[in-house]
Records
---
Amino acid sequence: MAGIRRCMLFSFLLFYVTECNSRLKKYNARPAVLATSGSPWPLPRNMTTTQVQYQVDADNFKFMLNTGTPSCDIIVKAFARYKVIAFGPRSETLKFRPNFRRRPNKENTVNQLTVRYVQPCDQYLSLESDESYTLVVTGNTASLTANEVWGALRGLETFSQLILPQGSGMYVINNTVIHDAPRFKHRGVLLDGSRHFLSVLKLKENLEAMAQNKFNVFHWHIVDDQAFPYDSIKFPNMSKLGAYDSNHIYSQADIKDVIEFARLRGIRVVPEFDSPGHTQSWGSSISNLLTKCYKNGSLDGSYGPVNPAEESSYNFLKSFFGEVADVFPDHYIHLGGDEVDFSCWESNPEIMKFMQSMGFGKDYAKLEEFYMQKLLNIISGYRKGYLIWQEVIDNGAKVAADTVVEVWKGGYIDELAKVTSLGYKTLLSSCWYLDYISYGSDWRNYYGCDPQNFNGTSAQKALVIGGETCLWGEYVDDTNVISRLWPRASAIAERLWSDESVNSVSAAEGRMEEHRCRMVRRGFDAQPMNGPGFCPVEFP
Amino acid sequence: MAGIRRCMLFSFLLFYVTECNSRLKKYNARPAVLATSGSPWPLPRNMTTTQVQYQVDADNFKFMLNTGTPSCDIIVKAFARYKVIAFGPRSETLKFRPNFRRRPNKENTVNQLTVRYVQPCDQYLSLESDESYTLVVTGNTASLTANEVWGALRGLETFSQLILPQGSGMYVINNTVIHDAPRFKHRGVLLDGSRHFLSVLKLKENLEAMAQNKFNVFHWHIVDDQAFPYDSIKFPNMSKLGAYDSNHIYSQADIKDVIEFARLRGIRVVPEFDSPGHTQSWGSSISNLLTKCYKNGSLDGSYGPVNPAEESSYNFLKSFFGEVADVFPDHYIHLGGDEVDFSCWESNPEIMKFMQSMGFGKDYAKLEEFYMQKLLNIISGYRKGYLIWQEVIDNGAKVAADTVVEVWKGGYIDELAKVTSLGYKTLLSSCWYLDYISYGSDWRNYYGCDPQNFNGTSAQKALVIGGETCLWGEYVDDTNVISRLWPRASAIAERLWSDESVNSVSAAEGRMEEHRCRMVRRGFDAQPMNGPGFCPVEFP
C-alpha cells in the first residue's frame, strides 16, 4: 500500500510540476518588467516572510479590536473599508477568472486580524503622530499592534496588500512579520484647485489613493491668480467674483467633506493661501488689496501683489485668516510667499514713499520680509504653525523658528543645506514636480531623489521632516489627474516612508509593477510605468 | 401709453445691459485661453454664419431622410446617435444649471434636419468614398445634402457641433451655410493592442471620439513582439501561447464588434500584422517560423525575424493572411515591414546558404525585399491592397505601384519627396507620434505639421493621401488612452480635414478650447491643453 501511495504521490507531483511548468511556458509573453507577488508598497522598514502560505477566509473575515483597545470612528470605519479593499465587493470576486485553483485547507486559514493600539484615538493626525506598527501573520492568527490608531491604519493598508487573490474568490497570505514606521513624518501630495478646478469626487478618489500609498498630507493649493474657488464665509464675493464660475466653487460643505474624508484615512489637510504674489483673483472682490501698478507715472490698469503698505491689507488678512484657522483644523497653514514680482511695487509711488519711511531704501526684499513677518504674526496670533516656500528665506527674511520651509526650486541640494543650517524644518519638493511629464519610466528619477542628500550635520538632516510631490494644475483636471499622479507618486511615497537604503531602481521595478496593478485592481487609473505589459485584473 | 411702454422698454434694456455687463465683469477669472462658441472642429472648408440665432426644439427634434434618399442602417443609427450627442440624454439636460435664460421664440425654431444623399449606402467606407456635404440652417429649416451617406455622417457631426446648449434644456443654433469636404481621404489613428491590451470598450470609446473628430481610419496595430492577442481561427495557439493571458485576447466576436462599431461611424478598420520583424510573439506557436539565431557557430536560443529562406514560412503566411483577408473587410491590410534587424539572419548558416543561392551576396536588404515581395504577392492574391512602413522602400525594395507607404521616421520632409517621386501613395505619421508626451501645449506642434510640406510636383503632392497619428502602447492602456490621445489628436484631425491655409495656431487655440470642452461635455476625458481654465460643463 505504501508503495502505491508513493507512486500516486509521485505521479501527482510529476503531473503538478509538468502542468505548472508547461503553464509557465504557455504564455511566452514579454512584459518588459515582471511583477512581484506579495510585496507591499511602500516597503516596510523590517519585513520577514516565508514560503508558508495560509488561506484567507474572505467570506467570514473579521477585523477585531483587542479588548482594552479604545475604539473610535476612525478604526471602525477603517475595518469596513479594508474589508472591501482587501477582498473587493464580494460579488466582484466571483468574477475573477481562476488562474490557479488551490485546494482549501481548513487547518491553516486566517479568518481574523486582531488589532490593538494603546493610545486613545486623536481626532486628527498631526506632524507628531506615531504611525509605527507591527504586523504578525503566523499559524492562522494575524495580529496588528501599534501605539496609536494611525499605526493601525498604516498596518491595515499593509495587511490588505499582503492578501493575494488567487481567483474564484480565493485568497492567500504568506507567513509574515513586519515592524514598520515611516522615515519621514510629512509625506505630502499637492493638488491645485485653482489653475483647474478638481471636483470633490476626484479629490476624495485621490485621498483614497494617497492612503493606500501611506501619504499623510494633502497640501491643498486651493486658490491662486487664475481663480478663487474657496467659498469664504466672511468674504463671499471672493468666490462669487473670483471663481471661474458658480460650478467651480468649493463650498464650506465641500471643504468639511474633504477634511473628514482625509481625517478618517489619517491624512492631514494643509490649505495654502499663497500671498503676497499669486493673488490676482483676490483683487476681484477685495478692493485696495492688490497694489495698483503704474506706467510712466500713471495707473496702467493692472495689479500686482498684495499692497504691503496699507493697514487695510493686514486688517483683511487678519480677518480672512481667522476664518481659515477655524475652517481648517490642521495646526499648519501654508502661506506661500513664492515668486513675488517686485516690479509693480517698484512702480507705485505710495509704496515708494512707504519704503522711504521704513528705511528700506530700494531693497524690496525688505518690504517682502516686512509683509511676511506681519502675516506670520497674524497666523501665530491664531496659534497656528505655517509653511512657506523657500523664497521668503532666500530673500533674507527672518521668520519664526518653527516655520517649515518648502524647497521647490532648482539647486535644491545647496538650498536644503542652507535652510537647515538656518535651523528651519524643511520639506523637499523640487525633484517631484509631477506636472512635468515626459516619455518613459520617469518614476525612476523620482525614486532616486533623496531629501537628505546634502552636506550637513545630523542635526541638519533631522530638520528635514519630509517632502511633497506637486501636481500643479495648468494641464491637469478631473480628466487626467489620477493617471498623471499614479503610480508616479508611489515612487515618492516609498522614498518618504521606506528606509534610505531602499533605493535600488532595479529592485523596485518589479514591485512597482505589482503595485500599479494592485492600484488598477482596486479601481484607480494608475497608468503603465514600465514599458509593455499587462495587469492580471484590469477591466471592470 | 406709448411713453410708458418706451420707458418700460428703456428700463428693461438698462437693467438687461447692466445685468449682462455686470455678469460679464462678475467672473474676473483668468483662463489662459478663452473658448469660442459655435465653431466646429475640424474647421469646415467653407462656412458662413450670421449673428441670427434660432431656438432648437430639443424635445421634439427630428432627423428626417428626404423622400427619395435610400435609407440604410448607417443613417438610421446615426440619427438615433446624434439625437443623444446633440441634446444629451434628456434627463441630463435638465440638470444643466442655467447660465443664461432665453425667452422661447416659436417663430424661429429649428425642429428638424432634413438629410438627403444621392448614392445608395455602401456597406463600408473606402479610400474612394465621398465625404463631402452641404449644411444649411436658415429660417427655421435645416438641411443636409451629400452625395454619399458618408457625407451625411460628417455633416451630422458638424450639425451637432453647431447646436449650442444654453442651459435649462435650451439650445440655439446660428444661421449657417457650410460646404465641406476633407482635404485628405485617409485620416487615421493608430492604436497598439500588443504592448498593452486595450479593452473593446475603450476601443469603441475611442472610435466614437474619432468619429466626432472626423477621423476615418482605425489603424489597428493588433499584434507585435510582446503579445499576440488576435484570436486566430486557423491558428488558435497563436493567442493561446502568444497573448499575455486569456483575459487579454481579441476574440473573433470582439473583432466583429469593433469593425461594426467603426463601420456605422464611417471608420475603416485597417489591421496591421507587422512582419518580418516585430514577430517574437508569433514564434510561441508557429514552430520554425522565426529565424533561429546563432552565436559562435551554435544556436543561442533566441529568435529573429520571420525566416525568409523557408517555404514553410510562406505557406503559413498564405494561410494566415487568407484568414486576415476574410476577417477584416477593408480593402487594405498593413503589412508593417519596419525595423528589421538583420543580425539574426546574418548569424544563421541556412540563411547564409540561401543568400548565396539567390545571388544576394551579403546584401540583406535584398533578402528583406525578397520576403516583402513574396508577402505582397500573397496579399495581392487575396485581392487586397497593402500599406507598409517606409523602410521597405528605403531599403530599395520594389513594390507594387498601388502600395501605400507610411512615413514615420525623422527626416520626413525629404522622405515624403522621395517616396512620392517614386510614385507611391503616401501617408505621414512622423510628426504625430502622440506616445511622446511632454509638458505644455504640444498640440500646437502637431497642428503645424503639414503632410504636403516638401519640395515636389503637384502630382507628387497628390500622392499624399493623408496621415495617421500613432499612439504606441508602451506606456498606454485603458487607464490613460483617452486623456493621452484627446484632444491632442484633434490638432491632427483638423490638419488632415481642413484647408491647408487653416494653420494659424493663435486662431485655433480658442476653438481648440471650445472643442476640448465639447468633448468633455460629451463624456470624454479630453485633457486640458491650453493652460489654466475650465469647462462650463465638466462634472457628471
---
Amino acid sequence: MAHEHLDDVKHYLLDLQERLCAGLAEADGVAQFHEDSWTRAEGGGGRSRVMTNGGVFEKGGVNYSHVYGAQLPPSATAARPELAGRSFHAVGVSWVLHPKNPHVPTSHGNVRFFIAEKAGEEPVWWFGGGIDLTPFYPVVEDVVHWHQVAHAACQPFGDDVYPRYKAWCDEYFYLKHRDETRGVGGLFFDDLNDGDFADCFALQRAVGDSFLDAYIPIVERRKNDAWGERERDFQLYRRGRYVEFNLVWDRGTLFGLQSGGRTESILMSMPPMARWEYAFEPQPGSAEARLHDFLQPRDWLDEFAGKTAQDTSGELS
Amino acid sequence: MAHEHLDDVKHYLLDLQERLCAGLAEADGVAQFHEDSWTRAEGGGGRSRVMTNGGVFEKGGVNYSHVYGAQLPPSATAARPELAGRSFHAVGVSWVLHPKNPHVPTSHGNVRFFIAEKAGEEPVWWFGGGIDLTPFYPVVEDVVHWHQVAHAACQPFGDDVYPRYKAWCDEYFYLKHRDETRGVGGLFFDDLNDGDFADCFALQRAVGDSFLDAYIPIVERRKNDAWGERERDFQLYRRGRYVEFNLVWDRGTLFGLQSGGRTESILMSMPPMARWEYAFEPQPGSAEARLHDFLQPRDWLDEFAGKTAQDTSGELS
C-alpha cells in the first residue's frame, strides 16, 4: 500500500521535473538544462538538472531525489519521537532560479513526500512543499499575481489553506538576524497527513503545478526591463541575504550538509555570484530602499488585489 | 581582582586593534580603516574598523568588542554547566583580510577573554584565540613561514603548545561537507585558564602580536604577482567556501547571528564578492587543482622547513 503511494508520488515528481525544466527552458529561450545523476551509498540517489548563463537565468536548477535508509535521521524525528528507528523513504523535487536581470525575481519551490515504516505497523506518510518569490525591485502587480495563483491552487482544499500556508511561508523564510523575510513569500507546508492520501497528494500536486503559472508571467513582464551596474550591484548584494538564509536558517540545507547529503545538489540553491558590503544602507527614497517595505509579512491579496496597476505603482502605504 | 584582569586585557586589545590597523594600512598603501562605534542594548558595544577597495585589500576589518550581561549565553555554558547563570564579560578583537590579488591569501585572527562572575564566589576567566591563513594559489614557502612564526610565538610557553594549537586549528576550520580544511591552518585555542593569569595573558598576547609578522611578509611577496580573469574567478569560487564555513560551521558566527549580536560586525568576515559554480572541478594538473593538497592537515614544519624554496616550488609529495 505505502509503496503504491510512493510510486504514485515518484511518478508525479519525475513528470513535474520534466515539465518545470521544459517551461523554464522555454522562458529562457537560450540555454538548456544539463542532467547529472548521482547515487547515495546509504540508499537512493537523484537526478539534478542545472542551467547556467541562459538568456534569462544566470543559474537555475531543478533537482529530483529519492533517498532511503534503515533509520529516519534525528532531525526528522525531533518533533515526532514516535517515529524514531523507523526505516524511511524521502522523495522530492527542489528548484531555484537566479535570473540575470535584477528586475526578474529569484524564485524557489519544493515538493516532498516521506514514508516511515516499521514491521508489523502501518506506514506513516506525510507531504511537504511550497513556492516562494524573492524580488530585488518588487512590483506590487507581480506580487499580487504571485499570491493570486498561490491562492487559487489552495482554494479547492478549503478557505483556510492559503492563509495558513501563506503565514507559514512568511514565518519559515525569515532572517532573524536581519529582521526581514527572504522575499514576498508564497506557500509553505510540512507534515501534511490529515485526511486521506488522495486529498493530500492532490494538494501537493496543486502547489507543484502552480509554479509555472505563478512565475513565468512575472519573468515575461520583467525580463526586458533595462538595468545597469547599479541594479546589478544591488541584486548581488541582496543575493548575499539569500546565501545567509540558506546557510544559517534553512533547516533542509543545514540538515543536508551536516548529515552527508550530496553537497553540490544541496548547494545548487546558491546564487552564481553574491556580494557583501559592510553597513550598506540604500539612499532614502531610492528604488533600492523600497524593497524594505516588501520584506515584512503583508496580506497582499486583501491590501492590493482590488487595485489597478496604476494604484499600486508607487510606494506601499 | 577580576576587573583588573579585564582592564589589562582591554588595554591590550585596544592597542592591538590600533597596531593591526596601522600595520595593515601601511601594507595596503592606499586605503585607510574607517571606524564605526556601536552599543548593545543588553550591555557593552564595540569599535569596528573596516577598509574597502584598498591597494592590496579588497576588504578588511579589525573589530574590537566588549559585551557583558547578567547571564552567560547557553552556548557558552553548554560545555561548562557549572557556569550557567553567572554574569559575564566578553572582550575580543577579530580581524579578516580579503585581498584583491588572488595570489595573496585571505587571513583571519581573533583573541578573546571571558570572565564569569557570581556573588560570593571566585570569578572564572579564560582566554581564546588564534590566527589562520587561507590561500588560493598556495606557495609552500609562504605556508612554512606562516607556521614558523606561529611556532615561535608558542615556543616560550612549552614545546607542546604549537602542536596542540596547530592541530586544534586544523580541526576547527574544517568543512565537513567538503572534506577539506578552510585553509592551511595556524593556531586555535579556547578555554585557556590553566596556570596563572599572567602566563595565559602572555600567551594570548604572543598569538595576537604574531599576526603581522606572520602575514605581512606573505602579502609583500605576492601582492605584485600577475593575475587575470582566470585567477579572479577561482578566488571568487574559493571565497564561496569561506562563506560556507563561516555561515554553516563557525560557532562564533552562528552564535552571534542567532542570539542577537550586531549583524554587520559579525558578517564583516564575509568576502566582498563570492561565487558558486555547480559541480566545478579544476583541470587535473592545473594551478587550481594544486590547492586541494594544501587543504588537509599537514605537518608543514617537519615536512618542509628544512627545504629550500626551490625544493618546494613544485607539487606537494
---
Amino acid sequence: MADEGLNFANPLFKQFAFYGGVVLAKTMTMSILTSINRIRKSVFANPEDCAIGKAMNRDVKPTLTDPTVERIRRCHLNDLENVVTFVLVGLLYVSSGPDPSTAVTYFRIFTGCRLLHTVAYLGQVPQPSRALMFGGGLTVAMLMAVDVIRKASF
Amino acid sequence: MADEGLNFANPLFKQFAFYGGVVLAKTMTMSILTSINRIRKSVFANPEDCAIGKAMNRDVKPTLTDPTVERIRRCHLNDLENVVTFVLVGLLYVSSGPDPSTAVTYFRIFTGCRLLHTVAYLGQVPQPSRALMFGGGLTVAMLMAVDVIRKASF
Amino acid sequence: MADEGLNFANPLFKQFAFYGGVVLAKTMTMSILTSINRIRKSVFANPEDCAIGKAMNRDVKPTLTDPTVERIRRCHLNDLENVVTFVLVGLLYVSSGPDPSTAVTYFRIFTGCRLLHTVAYLGQVPQPSRALMFGGGLTVAMLMAVDVIRKASF
C-alpha cells in the first residue's frame, strides 16, 4: 500500500497511463479519419463547410447519411461510450489499491479489445468478432467499476 | 488541508469514488440495454450485424429509427454529456479542498438526479420530471466547475 | 520533480484545473443552449416532452431535424469528443512531470481553440476558421497523448 497515488512514481499508475494514453490516442484518430473522409468524399454536415468541397470544384450540399463517414462516426461514438468510461473508472480503480497483476491484465485486455474492435468495425469483419471485442472491453470496465464501488463502500 | 490527494486515504475522495463508480456503472449499463434491445428486436445499425438477426431466422436490414433503441441511445448520450463531465469536474473539485459536507451533498444530489433521470427517460414518465432531474444534476456539476475555476484563479 | 501530484499544491495541476474547468463549463453550457432552443422553438425529441410545447398552446410533435438545435448538438458532440479526451489526457500528462511552460502553453492553446471553435460553429463563421480551431485543439491533445505514452513506456 506504499504507492497508490496518481503519479508516475506509482508503477501501476504508470502502466495505466500507458494503456490509457494508447486508447485515448486511438479515439482521437477517429476525428482525423472523419475529417479525411469528409474532405475526400465531400460529405459535410454544415452548409458553411461545403465551401471546402466547392474550392475543389465539386457540387456539394450538406449530407448526414454517407455510409463511410457514418460508420467511422458510429465507431467514434462507441469509443466515447467505452474508452472514456474506462479511463475514468481506471483512475478511481488505480487509487483503490488493486492487486497490480490483476489490474495490468484488465488494462491489457481492454486495450487489446478496443484496438481489435476498431479493426472489426472499420474493416467490416463478420460478426460476432466486433460484438465479442465490445463485450470483452465492457466486461473489464464493469469489473473495475464494481471493484471501486465495493472498496469505496467500507 | 491534510488529505486532499486523489487516493482512498482521503475520505472525501473515497466517497467521490463511490458515487462516481455508481454513475459510471449506470452509464455502462445503457450499452448493455442497447445490445439486448438490438438483438431482441433485430434492430442493427450495420449491414454485417444483420447476420445476428438472420441466424434467428428473421428478415432484417440496417435501421436507425427504432423508437425503443433510439430512446435508450438518447438516454445514453445524455449520460455521456452529464456523467462524464461530472466525474471529470469532480476529480478537479476534490483536489481543490472543498468543504467535505457540501461536497458529499453535491455528489448525492447528482447521483440521485441521474438515477431518477434514467427511470424517467426509459419509463416515459410525464414531464417535467425528467427535465427537473436533468437540471438538478447539471446545476450541481456547474456549481462544482465554477468552484474549481474560482479556486484555481488565485 | 518535487510536486507532480494531482492536487492544488502542485502549481501546474492548479493551472490545469483552471483551464480544464473552463472548457468543461463551456461544454456543459451547450446542454443549456440545447434546452433553451428546444423550448423556444418547441423542438423536442420525445413524445412526452411535447407536453411542454402544448402547455404553451403550440402544436408540436417529436422532431429530430431542426437546424438550430442540430447545430448546437453537433457542436456539443464535438466538445465531448475533444474536451473530454483533452481533460483525461491532461490528467495523465500532468502526472508525467512535463516541462511546466510547455504544458501551460498547450493548455492555453487548447482552451483558446475550443472557445473560438464554439464561436465559429454557432456563428456559422466561414471556413476554414472552425477547421483550424478544431485542428489546433486536436494537435495539442495528440502531442500530450504521445508524450504520456512515450514517458510511460520506460
---
Amino acid sequence: MTKSDRLIYLPLGGAGEIGMNAYVYGYGKPGKERLILVDIGVTFPDMDSSPGVNLIVPDIAWLETNKKRLDAIFITHAHEDHVGGLGHLWRRLGAPVYARAFTAHHARRKMEDAGQSPDEVTTVSPYPETVKAGPFTVSFLPISHSIPESSGLVIDSPAGRVIHTGDFKLDETPVLGEPFDEALWREVSKGGVKALVCDSTNVFSEHEGRSEASVKPEITKLVAGAKGMVVATTFASNIARLKTLAEAGQAAGRDVCLLGRAMQRMVAAGEATGIIGKFPATIPVEEARDLPRNKLMLIVTGSQGERRAASAQLSRGKYLGMTMKDGDMFLFSSKTIPGNERGVIRIMNAYSEMGVDIVDDSAGRYHVSGHANRPDLLRMHDIVNPEMVIPMHGEHRHLRQHTRLAIEKGRAGALLVNGMMADISGPAPDVVEYIETGRTYLDGSVQIGAMDGIVRDRIRMALNGHVTATVIMDEDDEPLGDAWVEVMGLAELGKSNAPLVEVVEGDLGQILMRMNDKTLRDDDKMEEAIRREVRRSVMDEIGKKPEVTVVISRLIG
Amino acid sequence: MTKSDRLIYLPLGGAGEIGMNAYVYGYGKPGKERLILVDIGVTFPDMDSSPGVNLIVPDIAWLETNKKRLDAIFITHAHEDHVGGLGHLWRRLGAPVYARAFTAHHARRKMEDAGQSPDEVTTVSPYPETVKAGPFTVSFLPISHSIPESSGLVIDSPAGRVIHTGDFKLDETPVLGEPFDEALWREVSKGGVKALVCDSTNVFSEHEGRSEASVKPEITKLVAGAKGMVVATTFASNIARLKTLAEAGQAAGRDVCLLGRAMQRMVAAGEATGIIGKFPATIPVEEARDLPRNKLMLIVTGSQGERRAASAQLSRGKYLGMTMKDGDMFLFSSKTIPGNERGVIRIMNAYSEMGVDIVDDSAGRYHVSGHANRPDLLRMHDIVNPEMVIPMHGEHRHLRQHTRLAIEKGRAGALLVNGMMADISGPAPDVVEYIETGRTYLDGSVQIGAMDGIVRDRIRMALNGHVTATVIMDEDDEPLGDAWVEVMGLAELGKSNAPLVEVVEGDLGQILMRMNDKTLRDDDKMEEAIRREVRRSVMDEIGKKPEVTVVISRLIG
C-alpha cells in the first residue's frame, strides 16, 4: 500500500432499500482503483410507483463507464435480490463471475436466459480457497441464511481485510446446509478486520433470532393433525423449509407434491449441486390428482400473493387439475413482506370462501426469519471485532439504527447509502465522492431509467384517464370538419347528462372557431390550446383532468 | 307479527370487507318489508385496484329502487367507514337520518358538503330514548370504541329484538366517553335477543383487548424523556388518544399544537358537542414556530402515510413553517392498516434521513385497537346471549372465523356476506334472496360502477402504456399520407434503435398498403387491423402490448 492508494466502498443498490443489492469495493490510486462488485440483485415493482414494470435493477451507469477497472463480480447467495440482475446487466460489465456451487448454478441459468455464456460463471469452493481479482483476494466464508450455501466474503486488500457478511443469520441448527461456525469466523477475524460490512434488515427485531430447526416440531404437529388436503407455501429458495414441510407430510403418511416452477427449479438445483441431502420422494401432479385428500400434501409457490404463482391460481380455482375444498388446510410458512399484504389477504379470503382453513404465521410458530436480529448483529460485531462497522442492506431507517448500535458500543461506523463512495483506508469511513445512482426498470424487453418520465406518464393515465383529440386542418389552415375526441378510462356521462365525448367535441368546436390565424398556423400553440380546453371541459363535466394526446393533421395543398 | 311477516337482514357493504359498512333490516311481508339502513360508509381506493378513484361507496341500487320502503338511516358512529357515504348517497335514498350528537355533528357536515340540508339529520339521546321507524323501534346503546359516542343499536321489531353492535371494544376505562357498561348491556338483553349482529374485524387477535387507559403511562414516559421536538400521529377521530398525547405533552412542560385539518375538525366537533371535557390548551402553528423545540409537541394527521396529510408533508420538508430536525422524535401512536405499509415506510425513511428518531408501535406500547378481540367477542356473545350470532364488518375470513366461534359455543350463526338477504325471524338465519351489490366509485365528480370497465382501462394503460394511431382516408377511401403515431408511457427506443413511433408508423404504412378495398371502406375492420399491427409492432420493438386508440378520419368528397 503506497501512500496515495486507498480502499473504497461504494454501494450502488441495497443501501437505503431492501433488495437490489450491489456493492463496489475498490483499491488503488483515487479515480484509478481496481474494482470488484459484490452482488447484482433486483427489486420488485409495484402498482404505486412502477406499474407495468417487470423488474427493477440498480443503475450501473457509473460501473459501466468504469468497466475496464472491474476485475470480478462475486455473488454471496442465490436470492433474487442478490443474483437476479446478473442476466440483465452482465453484458454491460463483462467481468468474470464467482460464486459457490449452488449460487453458481442459478447464476449460470440467469446468464443463459439472457443469451450469455454460462461459462462466465466460475464455481468457487469456500474458505480457505481464494480468488485473486486485481489487488483483491476474496474468499467465500459459509454462513447460515434462508437459502443454501450463503456466504460472507473475506475481502483482502493491501489496506487490510474487509468482511462483507452478505445476508445472514446465526443459526447453529439450520436443518440443511452449513451451521454458523463461530470458531471459523473468529479464526478469520483474529488477524484484525478493517471493516465489517453488515446486513441490517432485521435491526428492529429486538429478540435473538430462532433457528430453522425450531419450526419443525410445530409444522410436524400441525400437518399431523390435519384432516383434508394440506397445502403449504414458503419461499421456493428456502430449501431447508421445503425439506421440513415435506418431511412433516411424509411423517403424517402423505405423499408430497411440489407445485410451481420456482419450487421445482430450486429442488432440482439442490439435487444437481448435491446440497439437498435426503429429500423425501415427491410425486408428480398427475399422480396427486388421484390421491385421497388426506393422503396428500402440496408445497406451492406464491407465499407473497404473487398473482401467477400456484397459491394464487389455486385460490382462483383449478390449477393443474388440483382444487382446494372445504376442510383443506393452507399454511403460510412465511412472513408477508411489507407491501405484499393486499395480495396475500386476497388469497386468504378466496380460500376462506372455499371453506379452507388458513394457518398463517401471526403467532411465529411456522416461520423464522433468515436475517440476524439486533442481538445477533451485536454478537457478529463482537465476533469479528472490526475497526469499523458499515451497515448495508436495509432502508435508511435500518442503516441508521444499525450505525447507532455500533457507535453506542464504541465502534466506528457510518451510515453510507447508495452512491456514497467512502474511503475506508483510515480508522473510519470518509465519504470522498457522490456517484449518481438510481433504479433501472426492465420494462417489456427494454431498460428505462426510473426518472425518465415514462412510468410517470403511465401513473398519470391511471390516475387521470386519457383523451385523444384529433383535428384535421385544410390547405388554408382552417379546421376541416369537427374535432374528434376519444376517451379511455373516463366516465361516459357527466353533469350535462350527454356523452362526455360529445360535450368535449362541442367545446373544442367553439375554441377552434375563435382561434386566430396565427394560432391556427402554429401546431404547438394549437396543441396547447386544445389540450387546455380538453382538460377544462372534462374537469367541468366529470371533475377529472385527463392526460391528453393532441393530433393535428394538416392537408397539404 | 302475522304469520307471513318476516324480519330480514341484508348487508350491502362491510360483510366481506373491512370498511364501507351498510346494513339493511326489514320487517313485513316478503318483498314489502319496511326497511331501515344502519350506517352508510366509505372505503378507500388504492393504486392496485382503483387508481385515480376518490372514494368508494357501496352500490345501493337495490335500496334506491326500494327507497319508498326505507323509513330511516341510523349511524352508529362517526368513522368514515360508517358515515362517510352519507353526503354522496343520501340524495338517492331520501330517508331521515338519526345519530347521537357527536356523530350527528359529522353527519350534518357531510350533508352540507354535498349541498344537502343538515336538517335531515336528527340528534338522538342514548338508550332508553327510542326512535320509531316504521315497524321498528330503535335505540342507541353506548359502547366503547376509538371515537366518542359510538353506539350499538337496539332494534326492536314485532319479530323480536336485534342488537347491532356497531364497531366496539370492551373498555371500562376509555379515557374519554362512556365506559363499557356491562350491566346496561345485560339489562337490555335480559328479555331475550333474537340476533346479535356483531363486529368481526379483530377475531384473529387471540388476547383480550387492552384499555385505552393502558397507553397513557407509556406515552407520558416517552414524551417526558424526549430531547427535541416531539411529533405524534394517530387517527384524528381518536379523541381519547389526542387527549392522552396532549396531556403527555403538557406534563412534559410542552406547548401542544394540532396540525392537519382533520385533527382540528375533530377537536372542534368534540368541543361543539361537549364530549371532549378538559382538553389541554393548544397553540396555533404561528406561535409554535417561535418556541424552542424542547418546549413543543405537535399532534399531526397522517398515521396511515396519506400523501397529503401533515406527517407526510413534514417528511418532505416544510409544512406551515414547521420542519423536523436531527434529534426530534416522531411517534406513530397507531397501527398501520394492511395495504398502507408502503406509504408509512416511505415517511419513516424520510424522517430517518432527517435524523429524526421514529417510535412506532411494533411493541404495542403506544397504541391499542378500538375493536374487540376474540375473547372480547365471546364475552359479548355471553352478555347478550342471543338466539343467533351474525358476524358483520370483516373480510370473509373474519366472518368465517367469527361464525365458527359462535357455532363452537353452541349458538346458531351464519356467515352472511354482502347481498345475502336472510330471514332471521326463525331460530337461525335463512338466506332467502341474493341481491346484486358491489362498489360504486366516486371518480372526480361522478359515480361509476366498479365493474363498468372505466377503471380497468386506466389500470391497463398503467401496465401497458398507450398508443394513438391516426389515419386520414381520402374521398376515394385511400389513405391520405402516412399513418401518425403518438405514444404515452412507452420507451422511446426499442430494439431497432430507431424511435419507436417511427418504427410503428413504418409498420402501419406497410399494412395500409396491403389492405384490400373492402377493409379500407370498413372503419371497424380497419381499426381492428391497425390496433393489431400497433400491438405487434410495439411488442416486437420493446416487448409491451399497449392500449391503442385508433382514429380514422374520412374526408368526404
